[in-house]
Amino acid sequence: MTKISRRAALRALRCGLMATATLSAGFASAEGETVKIGYAVARTGANATGAGITTIPNYELWVKTVNDAGGLTMPDGSKRKIEVIEYDNRSSNGDLVRSIERLASQDKVDLILPPWSTGANLAVAPLFAKYGYPQLAVTAVTDKAPDFVKRWDRSFWMLGGGHDYANGLVELLSAALEEGKINNKVAVVSVADGFGIDLIKAARPAFKEAGFELVYDETYPLGTSDFAAIMSEVQNSEADSFVAFSYPPGSFGMTKTAQSIGYNPKVFYISVGGAFPIYPGIANGKPDGVMAIGGVDADSSAIKDYFASHTDSVGNPPDSWASAITYASLEMLEQAVGRAGLDHEALSKELSTGTFDTVVGEVKLEDNQLRDLFWVGQWQDGAFRAVSPAGKQGASAAVIPKPEW
Amino acid sequence: MLLTTLILGLVLGATYALLALGLTLQYGICRIMNLAYGELTLVAAFLLVVLFKSFGLPPLVALLLICPAGYAAGWCLYTVMMRPLVQRSGARGRLEVDSILATFGLLFLIQGGLLVVFGANFTSISYLDQGVSVLGVPVALNRLVALVICVVAGGALVAALNLTRWGLTIRAVAQSPGSAPLVGIDVNRVARQGFALGTSLAATGGASLAMYQTFSATDGVVFTMKALVIVIMGGVGNVAGALVAGVALGLVETVVATAIDPGLTLAATFAIFLAVLLWRPNGLFGRRS
């Protein structure tokens, strides 16, 4: 009897899968010299949802847009098409690290695009640094970005940190408090996981300093699917403002529960997921007034064009938080390559010091970080509009109190 | 306050129990620990969304279609995939290991299929979202529907297993698959029925879940885990046990969330899970071996 050990079988399977991935991705290589761009994203596993909403569609849209226009423009004016090498990191950092190693050392790609999520970006940052690739960490929210920039000088952090989002929200609410639109009582819930913890830690002192009282302040475990108990307690508190530092499943669950029990606070804020294109559907067509993390300048023509082409190629509009920033990071890369070429050092320097024209407007990084961001957005007439910081160009005025569901 | 907690806990518990019924049945009758169980519920959930969004079928009507479709799918799955495993397994232990490995593979197959067909996005429908007052406590109507389905399906199952001749043969196969043929029972047929029925319940659970919860193609494992905890707590293969354990879990989570801290619900779940296992290793209603 032939014996095939499970390990051997798995190895064969993996090799086969990788070969297929490489083959199917290598279509563009037919003519001329190409620019090889590699990425390892979560096609399966727990991160597939996030990567599938924010990261993968934008990578694909960008590659298609660039290749349709003849390819990446090099400093000498020649055009080179993009050839993609993609691996599935199966939402595991181990697989992710192996894939990045492979992209850098075996496939020898010219550029590597980052994976989705803060944790994944941190996991591969040392590798990017080791091989010298610039890392445009878009979907990473971290307060430690200044430290990371010192440690890995070719890393770029483009989505702010927990403090920024918490402070942006508190600023918005304290303006409403001063105008007498809401009382000083706030009910806040947060998911007991990285992002929720970061935000609530930053929000507690900020709320206190602004004169707010947290009448309800509880956390819930990741994976909670039923919010009836929490929402009924929140409803019984006297808070005018409801704030949830939540992930998409929680944001959606709380919205549905609030609607079914008829909970109508003057401010209803949820975090990740509120800016997703499916949110109006989840809110039963009544998202108006709901605030969430993110926001775009819905009136800018660049954003309108971007939404239209995303809808065309992916089938649905992008989310209104990290998607546009992700696409902007790719445009930055494209323009930086046009000016500095594919040499990693020159390219990183250009990314760090150059000014770029993107879908979110003119972008210039400060200390390798994108700081000019919107922190809070609100659904108004079917669009998720940025409302904080109120002074930033393109921000709309927040509607408080929120209309009833 | 106490009443609110009680009602919310009962409703939550019923949705948990409904999710676990099929798994306990499949293991109890066929000795197949179906790790792809959560994925099967997801398939039903997606099916309901498609029927609702593309064909305009009201979810409760779609449920009536999905339930028998689940039975058919389970029937085929057993015939094609499980039967060969059962046939070559002599002792009981081998089938358990084989079925765990096989369904573990099936899990990824179905998950991959769902990702290809439906993408990675969150999916949700709005149906019967309005609140209904139950003794003054507002409860979402779609969760109440799940509670009713759970009570009806669970009750019917318990009654059928204990009171009918069909139930007797099923219990015979469950207790002693080796001796059941001696009294003229076609073990293969009964096991296939049991597996199909379990799949049908998984589909029902998934379809009713789609009415009240947002889900995505990668959520199956979460459902399997929840169902596994309930099944093991209630006593593997024991339908009444799964019902009681599900409701108990829902109650504990809600009480802890309101009286102590929502952050401790997960800890409470596993604390009572541990306690039950220490106190009764075979589950609340498990047979002593």
From TrEMBL, chain A:
Q: Which residues form the Leucine-binding protein domain?
A: 34-382
One GO biological process from the UniProt record? Answer: amino acid transport
What's the protein here called?
A: Amino acid ABC transporter substrate-binding protein
**Signal peptide start and end residues:** 1-30
SUPFAM superfamilies cross-referenced by the UniProt entry: Periplasmic binding protein-like I (SSF53822)
- InterPro entries (alphabetical): BCAA_transport, Leu-bd, Peripla_BP_I
Q: Which species? A: Roseibium aggregatum
By sequence similarity, the record places it as follows: Belongs to the leucine-binding protein family.
Q: Which UniProt keywords apply?
A: Amino-acid transport, Signal, Transport
Q: Which Pfam families match?
A: Peripla_BP_6
Give the stretches traversing the membrane.
none
User: Mind telling me which CDD domains this protein's record contains?
Assistant: PBP1_ABC_ligand_binding-like (cd06338)
From TrEMBL, chain B:
Keyword annotations of the record: Amino-acid transport, Cell membrane, Membrane, Transmembrane, Transmembrane helix, Transport
Q: Name one Pfam family in it.
A: BPD_transp_2
Q: Which GO terms describe its cellular component?
A: plasma membrane
- Record keywords: Transmembrane included? yes
Source taxon at top rank:
Bacteria
Q: Where are the transmembrane segments?
A: 6-25, 37-55, 61-80, 100-120, 140-161, 227-249, 255-279
Q: State the name under which the record lists this protein.
A: Branched-chain amino acid ABC transporter permease
The uppermost taxa in this organism's lineage are: Bacteria, Pseudomonadati, Pseudomonadota, Alphaproteobacteria, Hyphomicrobiales
